[in-house]
Amino acid sequence: MKMNLLIFLLFNLIYVARGNSKPNILFIFADDYGFNDVGYHGSEIKTPVLDKLANEGVILENYYVQPICTPTRSTMLTGRYQIHTGLQHGVIFAAQPNSIPLDETTIAEKLSESGYKTHMVGKWHSGYYKKECMPTYRGFDSFFGLLNGVGDHYTHMLSRGGWSGYDLRRNETVSTKEKGQYSTFIFAKEAQEVITNHDSSSPLFLYLAFQAVHTPLQVPEQYIQQYEGVIKDKKRRTYAGMVSAMDEAIGNVTKTLQEKGLWDNTVLIFSTDNGGRVYDGQNNWPLRGWKGSLWEGGIRGVGFVNSPLLTKPRRVSHEMIHVSDWFPTLVKLAGGNLKGTKPLDGFNVWETINTGEPSPRTELLHNIDPVQTPWYGKPGSGGYQWCPQAALRVGDWKLLTGCPGDSRWNPLPNSSLNLNEENYLNNDTKKLFLFNIAQDPEERHELSSQYPEKVKELLLRLEEYNSTAVPVRFPNPDPAANPALHGGILEENIGYLVGDSLLAAAFLSYAGPFLSNYRDELVMQNWIAQVRELKVACTPKFSFAEFLAKPTTVRQWNIQGLPSDQFSTENGVIVTRGNRWPLMVDPQGQAIKWIKNMENTNGLKIIDLQQSDYLRTLENAVQFGSPVLLQNVQEELDPSLAPILNKSFIKR
């Protein structure tokens, strides 16, 4: 009996180096970094590396982020406002079954399509309740960092709400050897290793999201000592040391880019994720408000771009730019396209940065949070009301509704300024505010009563935005994620992991030669029932392809010619993940086409077992590391092939 089967043998992948003209991209986030805490804004905190990079590049002084961590990160990664991803309320907390929606395309996925090697180091804080939410399933080739939003900088433990768990990962695996090491330095070291080991034949996208300078206030003592006698406030002195340590770490990363010979073709973006938390040493003076608020102190970002590729460097830009703009800007800069994404809220602002052209952005939605229950009044007044918290900027005008958050101006600790009477602006009764930000960036002169028509215009625009909002994603924590149930580790929900692994192993070993309908029958009608009989939990609608194939990998296969249907994806997984060289059914020749496209530069040999000298070809392939495709395999195989099919090689 003759079967239309083929075997693909890939002894060693050999890639031909190609010249690369696409720019490398280094995107750096600083966490909870205050507007008044960088040297070039006049701070007493020393930031020589950031100052040099900013002054030699383009400083963005009309640059906006979101008021808290998760929304800013999700907006950068997707190019979409948080009202369009369901993340418009709060952050993603540990154990919440929540993430950036899985149907959103990330910037890492789009850059991968353009041939980039994509790596993430540092703070993820974009959801991890199942493996598909993890960075390595959202477009990144590698990940090293923490999944949550906060933790001890040395022990890497997160303790919240009676739970305590360890939070440091390398890809999907817990990494414990870094216990006791300061997070700023281990993240910088990892970034340096990524750069050092990068094959420069491909462009690099490195997303470096520091945990610094988020609380807890921790840093090696020598970084604090330089501020003794300079900064009196103990919290700010420790915080200043954290800033200096981060500044030094960034210098080490850029130095490695130079030593590797990558700097001259690199674009570096530095950004805060939100305003500083003023009660923990950070400062946003002279802006109003702080982290978590929609006042300028919560959303005006510290940002700049540095690159030898800039046409007009050494400038300060006052053009309006938002964190959502990085997605289309960097994808276009990389020579990619925006096909396959949902409608973006970001704009391509590269020429604004590069040559000083006017920004294509003339307005931005800061947020609409229908869940936020605001508090009004001075301390002790006891007044509570409800009104959607929202803010919108159109041209020079900014409208805020509800309670925009803490409304105080906060001078430096021990300052002689006293703004107590000015600090509340009738917040005990007021629910709507209007400012001309171009003339009044400190939001000291409220104008809603003077410009009622402008208020009406902006409220209508806010209503238009609200009509496009998706429901809020803010589920309750999942008790199954309690670290106490997982050896003290903050984990995604792993209740089905054992059963799903058993099903995947069976599929990988036995399902290759069968057609799609028989594979489905094996899994749904036989194997799942047998696993449950053993009292092992598994996913009710288990999908082999989804369990073992990363979306970025599948996308690359599709580019190489593999059809996007489930059957073809399963075959792709079997080819690349099997413990033995797989036997696959390929009735329409689709797998052959894919393999040829994938290996066309690596000397692929296609042979038929009826050929008299096929063993010689196999021996040469084993010796020299070449791929081989055996096609038209019949019912019986030559026993001499068994060691090869089982990967039973002896290296001498």
TrEMBL record:
InterPro entries: AAA_9 (IPR035706), Alkaline_phosphatase_core_sf (IPR017850), ARSB (IPR047115), P-loop_NTPase (IPR027417), Sulfatase_CS (IPR024607), Sulfatase_N (IPR000917). Pfam families: AAA_9, Sulfatase. Transmembrane segments: none annotated. The keyword Manganese does not apply. Its cofactor is Ca(2+). PROSITE patterns: SULFATASE_1 (PS00523), SULFATASE_2 (PS00149). GO terms for molecular function: metal ion binding; sulfuric ester hydrolase activity. Keywords: Calcium, Glycoprotein, Hydrolase, Metal-binding. The keyword Nucleotidyltransferase does not apply. Belongs to the sulfatase family. This is Arylsulfatase B-like isoform X1.
